Records
---
Amino acid sequence: MGSLRGLLEGVVDTALDSLYTATGSLTQSRTNGLSLLGTLLAPTLPLFLTNNSLPDGYPWGELTDEGTNPYTECPRTGVTRHYDFTVSRASIAPDGYLRDVLLVNGAFPGPLVEANWGDTIVVDVHNDITGPEEGTAIHWHGFLQHGTPWEDGVPGITQCPIPPRRSYRYEFVASLYGTSWYHSHYSAQFAGGLFGPIVIHGPTRENYDIDLGPILLTDWYHREYFDIIEEMLAPGGSAKVVSDNNLIDGKMHFDCSTVAPGDNTPCFDNAGVSKFRFQTGKTHRLRLINGGADGVQRFSIDEHTLTVIAEDFVPVKPYNTSVVTLGVGQRADVLVTANVGEPTSAFWMRSNLSSCLPARQPYAVAAVYYDQADTSTTPSSRAWDVLDPGTCTNDDLDITEPLFPIPLPEPTLTHTMDIELFTNASNVTLWKFNGVSMRADYNSPVLLLANDGNFTYPPQWNVVNQHNHTAIRIIVNNRSPSAHPMHLHGHNFYVLHEGPGEWDGTIVRPSNPRRRDVYSVRSKGHLVIQFDGAPGVWPFHCHIAWHVSGGFMATLIVKPDEVERMEIPRDVEKNCRAWAMWSKYNVVDQIDSGT
Ligand SMILES: *[C@@H]1O[C@H](CO)[C@@H](O)[C@H](O)[C@H]1NC(C)=O
Ligand SMILES: *[C@@H]1O[C@H](CO)[C@@H](O)[C@H](O)[C@H]1NC(C)=O
Ligand SMILES: *[C@@H]1O[C@H](CO)[C@@H](O)[C@H](O)[C@H]1NC(C)=O
Ligand SMILES: *[C@@H]1O[C@H](CO)[C@@H](O)[C@H](O)[C@H]1NC(C)=O
Ligand SMILES: *[C@@H]1O[C@H](CO)[C@@H](O)[C@H](O)[C@H]1NC(C)=O
Ligand SMILES: *[C@@H]1O[C@H](CO)[C@@H](O)[C@H](O)[C@H]1NC(C)=O
Ligand SMILES: *[C@@H]1O[C@H](CO)[C@@H](O)[C@H](O)[C@H]1NC(C)=O
Ligand SMILES: [Cu+2]
């Protein structure tokens, strides 16, 4: 990592002394700190770095995406990828409006974690959050963590928060391949900038020439996450939070003339949008990630067809579309061929926040330049004319089929879990999931208690014991007036059905249902999922930052006997002792569910 850090600092520092670059946009260090994403200097993948180079050839051997069950077979490469994360506060202006953020290694979005399928990923996280100090914990979205549930990074569930000025090492196997992200699971810290992309290289049947790397699509807020939640969870507060902007790889313009009168925060017009280079005639792989707090993204590139080849960590039978819809936490890998224009052409890349949510500026754009285009020009391409259904639902279930087929097993256990919005006796608006508004106890992670043989918890932890069942079906009934991207940790679940009202028992393609780790349930609708449970304690929650803060989370204990027998590394307990010590002498302002 040393060499990349040096390269980044070199590039960014040269621009530090002036506010604007030669082409009139804000300098990269002011908008995105030490990140190069969204600039023409961003490297294509894989990155070959001195101590971090991917071995030649295919370390996954004979395993393929269409012939291998990734849940039962995983290559063992023997290679470890080591990363060092320092989490700290900073002030940046991704869209020109200066705000306080939380960053990994001074970069927005955070640095890329890259590995091969079957590698071991080691991340040393140093909590350098000061002024004021705050705990943290990092979740590695979409990884199975089978056999290592304590590495899942959820405070109060799988670990205690990492106290300020302390370090914690995460170590887990890259058990699946494709595109994902990491993000803080401590309160709504990820809405304050604490997230970054993950790319795991694996077998891909489809051919492409250039891997353009991660493209993070994120709604953006001009206020700190803590202030947003404090207001939302105040008596008489509203569960609806309005986003201020929408970013592609952390960049977008903002019209500073729309800043509220009396708001003296520095705001600069023309912050600059992300720029991408296409090689004429070549096929590019784009790794789309909705890493936002709330909004549903509708991604497109003017005049170009997108071929979807993977959704979340699941390779799918390729299909063509002009728009890809992603709820918070969802990913899509798409192939795009640069055969629409001349070598000098430029096009707009767009990501629109779906109209089902309130947004001050929902339209993100980035520029795509073919190889001989002048990168100081502005594209003049025409947008695809596609109607936004305005429902915040995912694209139809029957459109996508996993490349490796798995027929739906018969369930041995079926639950019904309801989603409700309510106000408590203090007139605070909160969420209930399965009858409970969850609140975690940072000092008593469920996993450690279960490992000690204690399966009796306070009701507000919302823990549901699945006992020995492994074919578990959950019918989610959404009684609330908004849509929710539902995320289950540790599994790709089968999506049986999603629709309005009650479920009528229909299952879409039981011979090979769609599988994902996040799927959206519409307002006043239902979502039916099923999963092959692995031993552990697994959060099942809405991925909207504000909703999970308001208590929208349950924790499923699978195979308690095996959880009790797990040998959890001493460092997990050691971190809890450090947190207990820190929280004894410092006030932990747990304003929300904690996760
Ligand atoms: C590579 O790893 C070796 C041994 O761990 C270390 O001494 C060296 O500084 C590293 N080089 C870079 C460029 O990170
Ligand atoms: C609760 O808050 C709402 C605003 O959301 C307000 O209209 C209502 O009067 C409050 N009710 C009480 C009992 O304070
Ligand atoms: C997608 O469209 C391209 C042309 O743009 C075509 O070559 C390809 O066969 C299509 N793929 C599918 C799966 O329909
Ligand atoms: C995105 O919004 C623009 C308006 O800014 C519109 O022209 C375009 O059709 C929208 N695209 C999609 C896919 O909804
Ligand atoms: C209502 O919820 C808020 C936020 O979780 C909490 O601080 C307050 O104590 C609750 N009120 C009651 C009466 O439970
Ligand atoms: C289990 O843990 C909970 C939460 O810490 C505690 O209240 C309860 O007393 C414990 N039960 C036993 C049997 O130790
Ligand atoms: C659950 O399975 C374990 C073996 O993994 C067995 O020892 C235990 O008795 C089972 N528990 C129940 C309640 O069936
Ligand atoms: Cu997650």
---
Amino acid sequence: MKSLVIIFGILLQFTAAVKNPIISGWNPDAAILRVGSNYFVATSSFVYFPGIPIYKSKDLANWELYSHALNTPEHVQLYGTPTGAGAWAPSLSFINGRYYLASMTRWTYDPFARVWPRVFFSSSEDLKTWTEPTWCEPWGIDPELFHDANTGKTYLNLMAPNNNEQRLWGIYQCEVSLTTGNCVGEYISLWNGTIPQNSSTRAEGPKMFFKDKYYYLLIAEGGTDELHRATIARSKSPKGPWTPAPNNPLIYNGAFGFKNLTVQSTGHATFVESAEGDWYASFLARRNINGSSPLGREAFLTTVKWENGWPIVNDGKPILLSENVGNTPEAKPRATSFTDTFRGKALDPSWYQLRIPYTNNYRLGNTGKDKKDLGIAGHQKPGGVTLYPNVFTLSDRDTPAALFRKQKSLNMTFSATLLPTDGSLGYRQSVGISAYLSEFQHQDVGIRGCVNQTGMCFYSNLIRNGTTTTKQIPLNSTTIPSGVTLQIRAEPLKYTLGYQIAGQKEVWMDEIESKWLAFGPAGTFVFEGANWALFGSGNGNPWPFNAPEVGFLEVKETYFEENIPDYDRWD
Ligand SMILES: *[C@@H]1O[C@H](CO)[C@@H](O)[C@H](O)[C@H]1NC(C)=O
Ligand SMILES: *[C@@H]1O[C@H](CO)[C@@H](O)[C@H](O)[C@H]1NC(C)=O
Ligand SMILES: *[C@@H]1O[C@H](CO)[C@@H](O)[C@H](O)[C@H]1NC(C)=O
Ligand SMILES: *[C@@H]1O[C@H](CO)[C@@H](O)[C@H](O)[C@H]1NC(C)=O
Ligand SMILES: *[C@@H]1O[C@H](CO)[C@@H](O)[C@H](O)[C@H]1NC(C)=O
Ligand SMILES: *[C@@H]1O[C@H](CO)[C@@H](O)[C@H](O)[C@H]1NC(C)=O
Ligand SMILES: *[C@@H]1O[C@H](CO)[C@@H](O)[C@H](O)[C@H]1NC(C)=O
Ligand SMILES: *[C@@H]1O[C@H](CO)[C@@H](O)[C@H](O)[C@H]1NC(C)=O
């Protein structure tokens, strides 16, 4: 047995073990940090609360959701914030024994409002309890705190405009006070990247580090979509001047044709050195499915090697899903399911709300009027989650009574069993589940007071480019009975929506191509990916005081194999 272990150990040294994406489901701008034997990755959260998730790993291959940095309304203001704005592009630093998160909040895209993104940092001893934000002087995006161990100085690096008229974006810097957030050294332009500068080419996401005799400035360029890439420069000083690498761009799958490789929009990288002295890069990428990416931008990892003081990422090869990378333990097989019966003291941290939940939108448990039917006899605490529906719907730029989870697989089902009601839903009252991308794009199935007829109906609402297609089927019952499950089957190319009544065959009401859950309508910015939602709504009216309580007894996700090809060919 012992010899077997040793042989296995030797084999492991040659086993490339990181599977991409390392964190599936939308998690853009993955910024990695190692402290001791722990790795942490922080990602963007936009209009979701709590904000800025932090994932933890011991081995780079297996990641778990560890905490959120913006976990009270004082940490992040998102009232009325449109999809795609909100909290972005975090970076993590470890300075004098404290963790620092630098990030930004953007409240709107409206150019007439002249509201610009603001940068801040906060700090923590344990990554769980965070100080309130310290707001920095410059405006811009993608801030980073770089602590120069050679001098003890801390710099704020960020993407900022040259001025507020031309708005040519580049990487800017000042030495910063960790107490006030103010600049304590001159504010300078560091580098404008490698692409000829105009108002849409963007040098962003600065990540600075010192290795051997050079300071390195790693950035993202080319905008958010197909031209996205990672480039680097080095200097003898953290203030420059900067010499670009001879092998830029370091990461750029678009170089192989935008329609060829599945993995696209590669960039926004952060480097990390393992305790063993191996280097890796975290970065973002999309998994394109016939040209669109319903899961949005996910967190990826690859190797970094050094030659003549310059990094070579992934051996200079394109990023492929089929290739595992690195020299780490094997990734554990992925879970095949997730079940939530809502019996914990609090919601599982993988659930989110939209914007700032300024009203209480749910409670754990249910009235348990029908305990026998709910199948919870013998349990200490009734399970389930009861929603407090309000006037808002998933189409509003507000906080509907809705709970969200990231869609983590391109091949899975999401199902939710409704709590039985003691009465009927009336005109405008609805309860359901959704495949949700934004206030413009969500595909719903649920139960509502029927439209144009009396009684309650199952209904589906599909949104294609602003046009809604609705179907309804009478429920033939004056209450929602026990054992009604709503379900959505997600496949790479489509979502299928339906329901199942206990003991009966499942009914699929409608289906929609997954491309309708990717990218926003013209003129909007949607930087997130697909979520699953549970919702209840008064659809513009308050939920009547005497209307039945609605909610869900149990949520279940089942994950199937994801055989996503390296080349984006689906015909
Ligand atoms: C970057 O571009 C801005 C605007 O054109 C310019 O003012 C600045 O000097 C440039 N910075 C560097 C380091 O070249
Ligand atoms: C900026 O430059 C990029 C590439 O160099 C080009 O594709 C784009 O059209 C330019 N945008 C503007 C606003 O000039
Ligand atoms: C990728 O696509 C481009 C055009 O879209 C084509 O010219 C090129 O040959 C393709 N490359 C590969 C490796 O398939
Ligand atoms: C309800 O009736 C209106 C008017 O006839 C019609 O336009 C609409 O499509 C109907 N809605 C449903 C869900 O049947
Ligand atoms: C969606 O609608 C917009 C505006 O009407 C149009 O320009 C665009 O081509 C449409 N997109 C698709 C995929 O149909
Ligand atoms: C309710 O009855 C109608 C008419 O028989 C039928 O078409 C429909 O499928 C029934 N609804 C359910 C949920 O079984
Ligand atoms: C999705 O899962 C189903 C059921 O296991 C399987 O038949 C199918 O090949 C999978 N699709 C992909 C793209 O992996
Ligand atoms: C892929 O996308 C193209 C262009 O939108 C479309 O014509 C084709 O039907 C799609 N293929 C599949 C398998 O969905």
---
Amino acid sequence: MRKSRLFTPGPTPVPEEVLLELARPVGYHRSAEAKATLAEVVRGLQYVLQTEQPVYVLTCSGTGAMEAAVSSVVAPGEKVILCTAGRWGERWRGILKAHGAELIAVEAPYGQAVTSDQLADALTHHPDAVAVYTTLCETSTGVGHDIAAFARLTAASSALLVVDGISGIGAMECRMDAWGIDVLVTGSQKALMMPPGLAYVAVSPKAWRKIEATPVRNFYFDLRRYRKALAEGPDTPFTPANTLIRAQRLALERLRAEGMEQVWARHARLAQATRTAVQALGLELFAQRPSNALTVIRVPAGVDGTGLLKKLEQHFGYKLADGQDTLKGKIWRLSHMGYVDPFDVLGAIAALELTLHSQGLAVPLGAGVAAFQREYARAQAL
Ligand SMILES: *Cc1c(COP(=O)(O)O)cnc(C)c1O
């Protein structure tokens, strides 16, 4: 027998009560009940994003909300600074290019983070940039960006700060209003403990002023439509994935009950214990400024990284993610965001130890598990 265990950095495991909610009959999306549910989901998302601004619910994957955060905000030919350190920064690049933005790229090599000094330089040299686009957690490398520091810089300039928080929100501290983020995007299938299908966007008053001055060039992703529908309904401009909205309400209730500070602290403990375990196995961490959403492990020299992940899944049911594009076979990505507890991760580490051992690598069986437990015991008094 083999159980399937999902450790990919999206999608992630979904709590049982959320799955049961998804099995209920489909309702009418303009009913009073649906509107009340949407209102509750918006309040829950405001808490998670730490904002008093309305949060718009879009039926699409995270990239759709990213596209809304470009097409509604930037007019063709306008200058934009892009802080990129991996594939998700490159996703911004692709969307910005498609919408005709003039790009100033501020880059860090894979595994490293863009620094606030780099951004400060770019803002000094490009005072005409209308926005800075970046990523909270660069899921392709495991790097977390210092968004609070980026926001201090943009708050003191005329540029907006637009953040892809799709994998970071719910796993890493992020305070939209207190930090001064202007557009914050996230999605349902990462640390918000849901299947894919919904994406969320919140917009600051500074960003609304820019959006209102920007010609409309899109229909489905025009954020003005979402603002109007939410204010008048509360409603969505188009038929939403209302079964997912109902389910998201329950997952958000979980986060509310635990409290965001505790949720962030839990992810920090899991991440720290996982990093300690990986190093105890003689393996190297890939991210120099690691996020708490996932741990990215450098594949040791001489090991077939892709093949080993296949064995890990075939024999033990643990599904980790391979590197993408040029990192394929070179890194392993182990997610610990969302509905994950220490014993889930301990199992993954034990399975990784056994798989490495079966390939003839000199890993001391139990070393990662023991290191995880020691670190966890140190960080959390029972
Ligand atoms: C998963 C992820 C996305 C994904 O977007 P989808 O359109 O939902 O596939 C975007 N950005 C980051 C940082 C992610 O981790």
---
Amino acid sequence: MNPDLQATDPAIADLVAAEERRQAETVKLIPSENYVSPAVLAATGTVLTNKYSEGYPGRRYYEGQQVIDPLEELASRRARELFGADHANVQPYSGSPANLAAYMALAEPGDTIMGMALPMGGHLTHGWSVSATGKWFNPVRYGVRRDTGRIDMDEVRELALAERPKLIFCGGTAIPRTIDFPAFAEIAREAGSVLVADIAHIAGLIAGGAHPSPVGHAEVITTTTHKTLRGPRGAMILSDEAHAKAVDKAVFPGLQGGPHNHTTAAIAVALHEAAQPSFADYAAQVVRNAVVLAEALAERGFDLVSGGTDNHLILIDLTPKGVAGKPAAKALDRAGLETNYNTVPYDPRKPFDPSGLRIGTPAITTRGMGEAEMRQIAAWMDEVVTALAGSDEDAAEKVIDRVHHEVRELTTRFPVPA
Ligand SMILES: *Cc1c(COP(=O)(O)O)cnc(C)c1O
């Protein structure tokens, strides 16, 4: 624990310590989360937070950029090299602002834009109605096929050719299958649209060679840095040369003020880590673990959207288990298994009380868990969900307590990076 924080503000220091303990003792199955390395964490807690640097390297609105300019250039170069992109903007505050910048760079308010519907696996910022992107633009949305649970590329083509959107978003938050970037690119070309690939969830898999890259297919690529990429909370926009200027102008001065330089430093560290051969091993193991976990769940009667997974993420329709997503997620959390409830495609239930559960393997793989642990986790999930579906509440609580005990024991063998 940090002694300065403890001395100045024990209330916050205690909360941080409690969260550290909670993270150590739980099995984190939320697919958008991870654990950063001590080096990434250290970079976020530096004096770089004290500096304003509106603008870009060599073109700033504040003096004193002797250190920040090379820092941002290094982060940007590492991003370009890791992903093979022409251009990288490392300033977006997070994934949602990065997506807003893509709109600002490529469209005018009121223009037609296209993305995957939120309940089908898209993100709020891909034009969902409650989001600014759904209010300020004219969104059209595609989904997945009812029979396969996979993106309906015929629907994407028909919709794109009928609506001619300014931009088409591909990527999402609950897509368990490989995204076909070349197919999206061909449709975008036919429709005269710019293809934006939002790789927030899978950036680390792409960097590690465990998912095909959108570079060369999507003109603009947005991503968070804190999911599979295992960096600090932040975002980047990669683009081809033709869109570089528009992207930069959209981020600053279009949407943001000063970049968060301590975050830029931590992004640079994460990119350096992701360029090491060991990160490719990590990315491959994330996928291997997800496949094993999916198979073990399917063997226990769990209904997986699309039948399984190609990446880090598994979407479970709990309907056949006789339990809804929210009570299941809450019971699992009490057992030390952290998940999130989620809509499944064509969900008959409400978004705040949906049928599904979304899980993934990026965080547990970072802790070094492997295939044996995946089978154990599937068994625990089955025990908790089956107990919850039964009518005996006391018996269910006993199961949850016992699993919690066993989960705690497992987590002591796989420490969080520190
Ligand atoms: C997480 C995510 C975002 C948003 O990122 P925030 O940092 O939470 O704003 C955008 N798009 C996709 C596909 C995501 O998974």
